[in-house]
Amino acid sequence: MSNVAAPGLSPENWVANYADNLFKYAVSRVSNEELARDIVQDTFVSALKAASKFQGRSTEKTWLFSILRNKIIDTYRAKAKYREVSIDTSENSEAEDVFFNTSGSWKRDKYPQDWTVNLDSDIEEKEFFQTLRGCLAKLSEKQRLVFSMKYLEGMDSEDICKEMGITPSNYWVLIHRAKLALRDCLETHWIKK
Q1: Class of domain 11-82
Q2: Contacts of residue 29, Cβ cutoff 8 Å, sequence gap at least 6
Q3: What is the pTM (predicted TM-score) of this model?
Q4: What is the pLDDT of residues 43-53, one digit of tens each?
């Protein structure tokens, strides 16, 4: 491990300056505080090992977040090796059964409602995002990661498929099911409350 940091890096300040934000980001992606702590720790270790290679093309913070994102993806890849997910299993199609009848039409009680959400105050906004985080945590790991990469990080579908090692059709099924589940959860815990 190199003990010499490149100019522009201050490893001695990383924990004080970035640990909280890295942790919050990791928790929002993995929905497990213990795992998030481990990933942040791995991020700092990897950054220290690569500190001499830092070229200053980005800020220190951006560089650390980039390492963190890669660590999160590595975590999901490692889990995927041990648990093969098929989009054709009855377990996955149960999500469809919740929303649609046998002819493929929306069930009456699950038909999407019109949303009129006004986040008039900081408190309402905070409550909404707290509810959204809770709903995201209820998704399967793959759905949560694919949804987060697409809608929170703005990645395109082709890059997500490459990163996750999934087919485009599997990607679209994951996105579709995540949207259905999030909509149902938000309607139950936010819209109708």
Answers
A1: mainly alpha
A2: 36, 72, 144, 145, 148
A3: 0.53
A4: 999 999 988 88
